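Target protein
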Amino acid sequence: MHRIAVRENIAWPPSLLPLVPLLLCALLASCGDDDTTGPPPGPEPSDLPIETSAQLQACVSGSTPGGALVEICLPAVWNGELVVWAHGYTNPGPDRPPYTPLVLPADEASGFGVKDVVRQLGTQTTGFYGYAATSYRRNGLVAPEAVADLEETASWARAQLEGLALEHGLPVLPVTTLLVGASEGGLSTVLAVEQAAEATPFDGGLALCAPIGDFRRQIEWFGDFRVLFDYFFAGVMPGSAVEIPDEDSVVTDANWEATESAIRASLNSDPEVTAQFAAVTGVPYDVGDPETLRDATTQILRYSFMGTNDAADVLGGNPFHNLETVYEGSDGDAALNAGVARHEAEGAALATIEGTFQTSGMPRLPLVAMHTSRDPVTPMWHMDLYETKNAGAAEAVTAMRVDRFGHCGFSLPELVAGFSQLVLQVDDANLVTSAAVFPDAEMQREFLHLARRSGARPVVIAEPE
């Protein structure tokens, strides 16, 4: 029986957090005291932990009925819990520019190995967590289909474990499945826990930096940003907010590198115009650090460059509408509103968004959501909107806010602290983990402090090497 989490609304000041950016975004977030005492974990099933095979430790790969690539990687001693990783947006392909091949998520992000971090969580006595991941059936905008791919991944992973059960003389292995997703994968995570039926393969989810509040507003965020950039810096970007022409020759990685350089040069060329652009868009960045404004601008415009045509194909037409939008904050708002490009959304695209990309705000399984306060790509208002979407939503999600610039720019202690909150909600027990997961003692102390601020009481054990 699944237990819905009690809401925790935590804000973390930057002075507490050494910045260790982690686009890996796989394990998760919150806050507390620094002592290492806490309630012991709940009793494990008598047939766990279990020694695994060398083949599963080295990772086994395959594919799902839907055509997604999948893999499962277990630790040497497994605790019966599996983290299924839902990766974020990938450039369209392989059937459309820039023809990005379908591949499994990268093993490493921002210096941390996703599989390694997951499989180091736990102890020799209690066992460690397993890892599974999928490419999804295609790249680009795929959040609703990704839900099915993640379910098929969990089912495929359990099938791989049947041999392990037989090897140990067990009729079946108990498996708790924790779904963890970042960015677009975070949206798929929330859709999965909201749609969960009685036979769901998942037991809870963690959504990181995800567009879960209002997907149409996310489309408008990208579209408004693009038309405003084109107004203030005409001719820098190819195409428009609703179409990239000559896609086969324009949408390439090499052309994006050149375009990104041109965007940065434009922002540097006229600080006064750049300040107006920032004011009208309302883009989050660190005031006093121009590099964060340049980073925010290029990160957002990259989606326009790479994903505009793919989004129109997936949604069934142009989803961006700004015919009635009034833009404010420039030195000449009348001229701005008269000169900015205007576009009308197509009904089919809006219907697709409402029917398949919008969340309900009512998770059926424990859900932890985590966001940085100055995320330029998926702004933190998504978290606010999600909490107020339905009357019960605020009590159905553990919401964690980190005071920092960046998209999915979480530190390792934050991520593991959030993961400890997910474990608490799903298992009704505190995480017990080896100190080996943390590169140094300071990160370990920070993790304990953050976890306790959200109500969790994890325990860190220094095990002999």
User: Anything to note?
Assistant: Residues 1-39 have pLDDT under 50 and may be disordered. The first strand starts at residue 10 and ends at 12. The chain has two domains: 10-213+359-461, 215-352. The chain has 16 helices and 15 strands.
